[in-house]
């Protein structure tokens, strides 16, 4: 999470959460968006978009990932990330 | 104390239906209605200019409260899409309304945060000059700068105008304001060669990250509790942004007003258009308003009903 001036706040909670990404954890993060019902239904290998997660829920998903793992996901990387497996690999490579 | 006496609004009659454009933009009805939350956007007539819309909002204001035009001391217009760069459009409105030569008139260049900024500016200007009657206009017809082929913006923005009358006998007074700017992110919502560009993800991230913090700061600044706020009027960016703010701030859904289905995001007019609809309800003793967008900038305030 960012504070009022856009600076990163290292809450102890965030530090604790800064663990390895797993598909299970990513499903939990996705469930915090309005796609909560689909979070446990989609498979981890196919494109999330093709499984019905729309662009707005994906935006929210990216933001939640950034805040959970305290990483930045640039727009150019977002285009390459399609499935939950892609996100798992990507996030772990940034930790 | 200077505050809001009455608000007049104007929405052009013409609408463009988003549901008629589903195939063109490869989307579906559920996404438009449940996520974007905008079925139709209001679009001004080709021969209507910014000052014309503002004058129509003023005509509506005159039906609500008695105004002696000869007594108006200041007129401020919030816009980034004026009739032309020179002269400033507040001067054009001044001419069309035949306001007195003693009336100050100037524009403020701000987008979605503009109404809240404008309130602070006009109150300060009136207060420091001993004025008792002022007009704050908002009018930013984005149809002037939107391509109907741009999915990112043409689904969202609608045209509209508002005229807020400020006096020393107000219905609502303001609390302490919050303001902020992230200039380094300003390029994410900009106009190049008369065409609007918006990086939707950046704007979403900005609203989702900053506004929950700002609401907290606003409450602390005003020594007020969210439980004691009767209505919350966020800038109406999209239903998804409103839903995200409700979730992130953990707000009671019934307090947060969503009113964009039939006309779209009217930029700096979105907040006063809603205020006009709810300000006659005496149960609304405290209203939180928060505008955020172009700049990227934001400003929030608490409006208190004057007893």
Give a written overview of the molecule.
The complex is a heterodimer of chains A (95) and B (307). Chain A has a single domain (12-94), classed as Non-ribosomal Peptide Synthetase Peptidyl Carrier Protein, Chain A. By secondary structure, chain A is mostly helical. Chain A has five helices and no strands. By secondary structure, chain B is of the alpha+beta class. Chain B has two domains: 3-170, Thiolase/Chalcone synthase (Peroxisomal Thiolase, Chain A, domain 1, 3-Layer(aba) Sandwich); 173-305, 3-Layer(aba) Sandwich (Peroxisomal Thiolase, Chain A, domain 1), CATH 3.40.47. Helices cover 31% and strands 24% of the residues of chain B. Chain B has helices spanning 29-36, 50-64, 89-96, 114-129, 151-154, 200-222, 239-249, 270-278, and strands at 3-10, 15-17, 40-42, 74-78, 104-108, 133-139, 161-167, 172-174, 178-181, 189-192, 195-198, 231-234, 286-293, 297-305. In chain B, the strands form four sheets. Chain B has a five-stranded mixed beta sheet with strand order 1-7-6-4-5, sandwiched between helices. In chain B, strands 8, 9, 12, 13 and 14 form a five-stranded mixed beta sheet that branches. Chain B is globular, with a radius of gyration of 18 Å. The model of chain B has no long low-confidence stretch (mean pLDDT 96). The interface between A and B is medium-sized, with 15 and 19 residues.
């Amino acid at each position: 999470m960012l504070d009022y001036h856009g600076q990163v706040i290292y809450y102890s909670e965030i530090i604790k959460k800064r663990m390895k990404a797993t598909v299970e954890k990513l499903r939990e993060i996705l469930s915090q968006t309005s796609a909560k019902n689909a979070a446990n239904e989609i498979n981890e290998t196919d494109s999330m978009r093709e499984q019905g997660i729309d662009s707005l829920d994906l935006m929210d998903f990216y933001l939640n990932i950034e805040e959970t793992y305290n990483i930045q996901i640039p727009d150019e990387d977002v285009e390459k990330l399609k499935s939950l497996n892609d996100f798992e690999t990507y996030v772990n490579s940034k930790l | 104390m200077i505050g809001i006496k009455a608000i007049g609004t104007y929405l052009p009659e013409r609408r463009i239906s988003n549901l008629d454009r589903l195939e063109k933009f490869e989307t579906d009805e559920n996404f438009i209605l449940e996520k974007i939350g905008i079925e139709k956007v209001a679009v001004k007539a080709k021969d209507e200019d910014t000052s014309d819309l503002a004058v129509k909002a003023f005509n509506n204001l005159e039906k609500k409260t008695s105004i002696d035009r000869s007594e108006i001391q200041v007129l401020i217009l919030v816009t980034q899409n004026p009739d032309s760069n020179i002269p400033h459009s507040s001067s054009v409105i001044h001419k069309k309304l035949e306001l007195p030569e003693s009336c100050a008139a100037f524009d403020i260049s701000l987008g979605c945060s503009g109404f809240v900024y404008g309130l602070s500016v006009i109150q300060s200007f009136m207060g420091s000059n001993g004025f008792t009657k002022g007009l704050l206009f908002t009018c930013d017809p984005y149809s002037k700068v939107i391509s109907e082929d741009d999915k990112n913006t043409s689904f969202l923005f609608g045209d509209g105008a508002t005229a807020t009358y400020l006096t020393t006998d107000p219905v609502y007074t303001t609390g302490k304001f919050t303001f902020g700017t992230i200039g380094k992110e300003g390029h994410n919502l900009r106009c190049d060669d008369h065409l609007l560009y918006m990086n939707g993800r950046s704007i979403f991230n900005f609203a989702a990250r900053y506004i929950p913090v700002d609401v907290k700061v606003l409450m602390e600044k005003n020594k007020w509790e969210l439980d004691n706020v009767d209505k919350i009027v966020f800038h109406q960016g999209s239903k998804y942004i409103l839903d995200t703010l409700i979730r992130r701030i953990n707000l009671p859904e019934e307090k947060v007003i969503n009113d964009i289905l039939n006309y779209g995001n009217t930029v700096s007019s979105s907040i006063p258009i809603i205020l006009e609809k709810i300000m006659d309800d005496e149960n609304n003793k405290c209203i939180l308003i928060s505008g955020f967008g172009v700049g990227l900038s934001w400003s929030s305030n608490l409006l208190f009903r004057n007893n």
